Amino acid sequence: MPVPDLDTTLNRLETVVSAIADAPTLAATRAAVESFRTGAGPELHRRLLDDAEERAAAGSSWLAEGWLHDYLDVRDPLPLATNVGFQVRLDSPASGLDRAADLVHRAVRLHLDHVHGRTPEEVDARGNRLSPAQWEFLAGGVRMPAEPRDRILAPARPAAGPHEIGVIVSDRIWALRITDDAGEALPVAALRAGLERALTSAKEVPRESPIPLPHMSYLPAAAGAAVTGALRAEPAGAAIFDRIRDMLFTVHLLHRTPRRADAALRDCAFGPGNAWATKPVTYEIGLDTDWACLHVEHSTVDGATILTQIARMQAAEPALPDGSADPGPAAPAPEELTWSPPAELLPVLRDALESYRDRARDLAVRLVKVPAPDTSDLGVKVSADAICQLILTIAQKLAYDRVRAVYEAVDMREYVRGRTECLRAVTPEAVAFAEALVAGEAEPAGFAAVMAAHRGWVKACKSGDGMDRHLWALRRTAAAAGEEPGLFEDPGVVAARTDFLSTTSIGSDAVIRRYTFAPTVPNGFGVNYTPLDGEIEYCLSFSSSRTEGHMAFQAALSDAARRLGRFLDEVRAGATEG
């Protein structure tokens, strides 16, 4: 992965700040940029280049290790910080438990394909080979809470197995063997029988532990480290931890799916006990509807990889159990995993979980659908992504009479161990156009400039010439030497990189229908947007108590889309008359 040119990054930073800062703040930022350009910047950039060369020679990149460490340094409960809930489209000819068995069996086969080295190479639309590093999530493992930094633990069992999955039902977890002696998937009838036994046990056998075991994965790092230490200190507890670590994945079987998709997605992402939140992935499957959702621990895997995984599950041959079929003597019995924490830890656990529930209750998820503007016959190259982002910019102006920083994730897996880059969609051109549109003074040239600026950002990010990761790496390089250049504390730079809207998009709902995650700043929004047929869906997450004007912003999205649509209709009509 190339290291961007220092001057290009600093020039781009000035431009980004100019979009959101007033004149005095921008003047101070320009002075800070020049001080960095002629002072600490070149030496930090040289050190970064040397580090990048060493890591490239070792088959890695200047981004990979530090980026992972930043994830592992998160001390908040992961679902309230970096984990993601993905509602996915997984059709099955079956329903109920038969459907659950089909979908879980497909997931088992694909996870085992990776374990046995059969995962196919992935290429993008341009034929570029994509880094395979993120596919390690299919092997299982766990993120272990630790101080001062969490650790990623790989599974310790051999490829031949035996392999297990975790089955979560009603806040409890069962270990279920899902492979034969050769390490291949058991028949789907055996899997279905195991799932059914776990469901029956959850209904008929009282829970033993005073605190549900899956809830212990929803703790902040300090409490999680204490609990994990106590668990691993006991022989029986250590065996439980090892089994959870070695599971390929966990699956949550949901008896009653909330009727509203935003409520169900919120529960999957933030509801305690619905996942093992430190495992790479938990598949959530409704037994009463066609609901399917993934709870993903984000440290090692990004949304584009999840998209490919679900697309492969969609394409996999359905595994349809015959409810009357004998699962055979090889059908495994699920084993519930239970552990009672030491008495001295119970108050810590209860307080931490009550704090989690309070914070989770404050997070809201809302779906806002707006009319998609007609972008045909404009004589300008238009992208759906740029339109979705422009609506967000106009909505900010309408709701708050100002525009704050926006983060958009761009997939970078075409580079060795690539993750994502940040596209700064709030450009000076977008802000100028939003202000003009709200004032009734927008011009076609202003719209064309917005599209061109967005297109320039996409090209810069995909060519490894983005801004944010470079600045992040320069700051880490400085910190490693005990240095803190003033540039990174400059108010304009801080404002330009404090993401009021943290946004991301997959591009359609054919595979992933929508997804949600906690906002990255307490008063901001997490935003997933999806272009649909004739409309655009915005999936918003926000704090009910701390996010400023969240109702006004939701209303402003529809207003912004209609205003933009009317403007483009007028442009089209004017071009026709001309």
Automatic annotation (TrEMBL):
One of its GO terms (molecular function) is acyltransferase activity. Keywords: Acyltransferase, Transferase. SUPFAM superfamilies: CoA-dependent acyltransferases (SSF52777). Residues 1-557 form the Choline/carnitine acyltransferase domain. Residues 318-337 are annotated as: Disordered. InterPro entries: Carn_acyl_trans, CAT-like_dom_sf, Cho/carn_acyl_trans, Cho/carn_acyl_trans_2. The active site is at 298 (proton acceptor). Belongs to the carnitine/choline acetyltransferase family. This is Choline/carnitine acyltransferase domain-containing protein. The lineage of its organism: Bacteria, Bacillati, Actinomycetota, Actinomycetes, Mycobacteriales.
